[in-house]
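User: I'm preparing a small set of examples for a lab meeting where we compare how different chains pack in three dimensions. I only have the primary sequence for this one, and I'd like the structure in token form so I can line it up with the others. Please keep the answer compact; I'll paste it straight into my notes.
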Amino acid sequence: MKFKFITSFLFLFLLQAITTNNSITVAQSQSPDFGVYKCRNTSNFTSIAYQTSLQTALDSLPGNVANHGGFYHSTAGNSSGTPVNALALCRGDIGPEACEECVKNSIPSLRRNCRNQKEAAAWYSNCIVRYSDREMIGVLDSWTFGELSNTATVSNISEFDNALNNLTIRLQAQAAAGDSFRKLAVGSVTYGPELFTIYGMMQCTPDLSKDQCSKCLYGTITELRDCCSGRVAARVFFPSCFARYSNEHFYNDPPLISNQSKLHSGKKSNAARTIYVVVPVVCVSVGLIGIGIWFLIKKKQRKDRVSKKEPTSFSSLLAKQKQTSNTDTVGMETISVQSLQYGLKTIEVATNYFSEKNKIGRGGFGLVYKGVLANGQEVAVKRLSETSSQGVEEFVNEAVLVAKLQHRNLVRLLGFCHDSKEKILIYEYVPNKSLDYFLFDSVKHGRLDWATRWKIIGGITRGLLYLHEDSRLRIIHRDLKASNILLDQDMNAKIADFGLARTFGVDQTLGNTKRVAGTLGYMSPEYAMHGHFSVKSDVFSFGVIVLEVVSGRRNSSFYQENDVEDLLPFAWKQWTDGRALELLDPSLAGSSYSDNDVIRCINIGLLCVQEDADARPSMTSILNMLNNNSVTLPEPKKPPYFLSKGLLLDISGDPERSNPTVSSVSNSSITEMHPR
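Assistant: Understood. Below is the structure token output for the 676-residue chain.
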């Protein structure tokens, strides 16, 4: 009876589609199903002339975009005023009518949501519409981005993420290889015994070069990993490109318009409409009926497999976790223990059995190796010391905790491995090593122009703000330093190494420890001398890093034999003498920078390293100070002189170490957790 019902239903559905002469291809006749708007608040317009030019540029888009392959750019304005650039990009798989409809409907909403801004963007299901007073053609724009996702998750997140990663990398290359008419890629991947299929689409504005498109889509892939692990559907959109995937088929394949010669203005004739509607319907009708029957069979087989599923490794631990919850959540992120597990054999193969050639560094609690997983993903593998006294359950729980800290300015923990005596953490691979690798090298620091240094300071600020205020638990890093700030391929800062981190409940603000651990030179006085730590001790470390970034000097000269004055009092002296700009790294002489920005950073750095912890600003205030030039910064007070050689000898036993670190490998752990 079920099979007869499905067959009859599909037949009636297809018959209705044919007789009403409507296409069943996805999104062809649908209105936009979402609208996301981003208004760039850096500048507003007040003149009627600009408003008139803006409306003229936008009004030209709907009628032209459908006749130019789904992409059109216009400029309005005369030489006496600021020109306005506008563009529209339609999804490359839809027809001209749906394209024109989407662009036409988006413009009034965009104007309502961004009334006076000189730059704005809107993303709908079928199109992107943007305008700006800046040039846009041939420019890779990343001033903003957005994301949407389905909150439903798959059962096997790790397997799903691997399959999605393979699909997105393939589509990235295909889209970037497109021509100046269209840079679009669609495709699917099927994985697992249940034959789960992921459908994907990636597209760039066709004015971008191959490298620009690839770079833009790489950003969407990164954001998909950060926001949407295991989710059945998601979209990420930048001004110049977008990516989308779903467990449901959502695109037209092949596209309704495949080349310019097939473009037509106005309405299609009834004969043409009937051809592209009826022929696909007839061709797929038999297949859909068969799919319906096959789906019922597979559903029954899936239930049988689930009931017979074998337990995974760490069975006793996972069984215990299932009694409460098999997943844990921070904000919108869902992490399961199973999704984070890697087998030792997988890690050994990825690192060429922990080869010396693969070694890329040494962290606080072990060696770090570069690895390449079977799917081609590059990872950083941290092999913790075998002398760690941490138990399996504590190790797993803490790995899950760190994995939930997902932010673009934090190095992401992808998973863990525990086998016999091995405790291993798998992180995303960050190609440009650490900040100190560039900052304190006489040759490499030339790559750090002022714009890059400003971006790095901003990235660290946002990462710390997330740890202190935006994650579900308040995280105190306790070992923030230049070597723990990694730089990705675009020199964006990512905070790394949470080996000494502590978590607080949202209402807890201060902690104490009898074992001071961290790196001298970055430690706040209350922590180094009394073991008191809080978000303000992280702020102190941040202030030291800011002064190091500005000056290009390491805050460790006082460890040397010549007793050269260390960075903090030196910066204070320059500030009080009215010669703050002389603190700037000499390698930046002659390059482009803003005096106000440099002085602002020095002021913020000195505010952060004040001896009184309560006088130091919060990360929210610091972000506001960096982004808002209208904010008047308070005058800083004199930084502490607590790091004398006598104190260094008391703590570390060796005053001559170039970068003394206080820690205990035998008690290594990822975090030290405090209850709420």
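A couple of notes for your slides: The CA atoms of residues 71 and 614 lie 54 Å apart. The mean pLDDT is 76.

User: Perfect, thanks.
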